[in-house]
């Protein structure tokens, strides 16, 4: 499963960044930009992310994925368009085949929210006996 290796890489990178930052007690959320053409299924990635986070500093962290649409530009005429899925890589304006893919292959950690300092104090559970 491709998404499992992506989740492992994201968790490793965030954990390393948290370690370098020092004093990080928990990771609350990770925002990931996922290109339309990256070949990643967001629901599968979220499932794998949750599994990989278990027992780490990221346990319980929310994964927020931002879809990045695919865009291309025709080299001869300069026309830009959304490539869609399945991707259309020939120019809709001139039928040119020399195109540059501008966006859509991203797989980038855009932001991480973490907690620093001492973890919040926990309360004792309220007894059901009165």
Characterise this structure:
Helices cover 25% and strands 32% of the residues. It has 130 residues and is of the alpha+beta class. The strands form 2 sheets. Strands 2-1-6 form a 3-stranded mixed β-sheet. It has a 3-stranded antiparallel β-sheet with strand order 4-3-5, with no helix packed on it. Helix 1 (2-21) crosses helix 2. The model has no long low-confidence stretch (mean pLDDT 90).
Concise summary:
The protein is α+β, with helices and mostly antiparallel strands.
How are the strands ordered across the major sheet? Answer: 2-1-6
- Rg: 21 Å
The largest β sheet comes out as: 3 strands, mixed
The helical percent reads 10-25%
Separation, N- and C-terminal Cα atoms:
52 Å
Structural class: alpha+beta
Low-pLDDT regions: none
Averaging pLDDT over every residue, what do you get? 90
Global outline: elongated
Number of helices in the DSSP assignment:
2
β-strand percent reads 25-35%
Order of helices and strands: HEHEEEEE
**Total beta-strand segments:** 6
